[in-house]
Amino acid sequence: MTQPSRAKATDISRVGPKSRDCFARAQFVFPDGTARVTIERDPTPRYIERGMGSYLFDVDGRRFLDLNCNFTTLIHGHAFAPVVEAVTRQIQSGSCFANPTEGEIELAELLCSRIPHVDRIRFVNTGTEAVLFAVKAARAFTGRSKIAKLEGAYHGAYDWVEVSQAATPQNWGDSTAPNSTSFYRGMPASVRDEVIVLRFNDAIGARRLLSQHGHELAAVVMDPMPSRGGLTRPMPEFLSAVQETARGNGILVIADEVLNLRQGFQGASARYGLVPDLVAMGKIIGGGLPIGAIGGRNDVMKVFDASAGRPLLPQGGTFSANPLSMTAGLAAMRHLDHSAFAHLESLGSVIRDGLARAIAKRDAPLCVTGAASLFRIHPMAQIPNDYREAYPTPAGAALMKELTRFFAQNGIILPIGAAASLSTPMELADAEFIVDVFAGFLDSYDSLMDSLESRG
Ligand SMILES: Cc1ncc(COP(=O)(O)O)c(C=O)c1O
Fold first, then answer.
1. Residues 6 or more apart whose Cβ sits within 8 Å of residue 368
2. Which ligand 1 atom lies nearest to the CA of residue 128?
3. 292-296 and 278-282: which strand pairing?
4. Residue 374, Cα to own-chain centre: how many angstroms?
5. d(CA 302, CA 311)
6. How confident is the model over 308-319, as pLDDT tens digits?
7. Is the pLDDT of residue 414 over 60?
8. Across-strand partners of 421?
9. Of 111, 107, 81, 75, nearest to 343 (Cα)?
10. Which one of 41, 50, 136, 395 is most buried, by most CB atoms within 10 A?
11. Strand pairing of 48-52 and 55-58?
12. Which residue, among 291, 151, 295, 137, has the nearest Cα to 218 in the 3D structure?
């Protein structure tokens, strides 16, 4: 495959005139010109015309290797032929019904047979909803209302899991007993009071806080490798501390695998030895269409059972288990076999090892985290263990912005402050190109730091 050459004459890190026109129009209809807060803008977002395989094409006709993959969703890249065919076939027969379809059974069968501890499943439309219903299911099962969660971990837009998602050095509090911080102005104090915050990889803190609040906690919400929290590997002693203390106190373990299910054929909990009672899924299981799913142990999932009248937890949704998402998800997941995961794993290793070698060679104060098809570059020499350690200084944040610009200039979309992700159409040449571009960035590192420092 031919790669765009490095350091082009035109600076394509700046968006083109058509993107600028779109953004000008968008100012009249969206609060800040964008339809979601997570859109990257510098200061103008890049508008996309189409995607194909691992590439994005913007409205100005520029091509980019896509390491965002719609926030890690598109594990087969864009316009994956089996998904396109399946969805085209389905939409000709109708897009949604009030009745169930066979497609939902097929996708459920695949997930229940693949993901350990998922005996039964329910579909929703987003990862947010999946986490929301998992938390509610834990409450309905235990009769308790509080939850514990990890500082800095992102779980979507449900108030309770938003607590301490954006904690800062100014408000995160004691290193051994984190504050429960508001995510938005006006967040009810009662919500904060219902959430106990743990630090990722702090086994002693997890044992202490979960035991102390054990009688009132319905669940501990765990992402085995929180992307925005640092994309750091979980220490085995931390996972066992959480798991044992939760079990000992009747607290359910909810694994949020909305993002990290892509870490392997059986997902991330299996990879790291976490045994969840409930699993929240999303992203890859919809093949690029909106989806979420709550899976778990049979006895816990009984809270959704309406066969004998009103269930402990009613769960519906106009578009839940809609046939388009079911059929797209099934096509994508069927093609995610062991060899697809092995391919992604090997590309990920080539990239992470290559980036680490480039850093070591230049003794640059950066590091790389991640696993499987995910990686994240940090502006610090020491690999962070948790959200606090991964929290960048203002100079570090500015450096990461420059890195993203440099990647864009070389035809690669690299997310800032979150996981970069790979897709099955990527090849070894793409992995090598990513490493090569990064090495080019490091070559200009000293002069860049000088100019950042002189800018203050
Ligand atoms: C770990 C995790 N949980 C939940 C969500 C929310 O999913 P959605 O954006 O589909 O609502 C995300 C989204 O990025 C996520 O990464």
1. 352, 355, 356, 359, 375, 376, 377, 378
2. 11
3. antiparallel
4. 10
5. 8
6. 999 999 999 999
7. yes
8. 374
9. 75
10. 136
11. antiparallel
12. 137
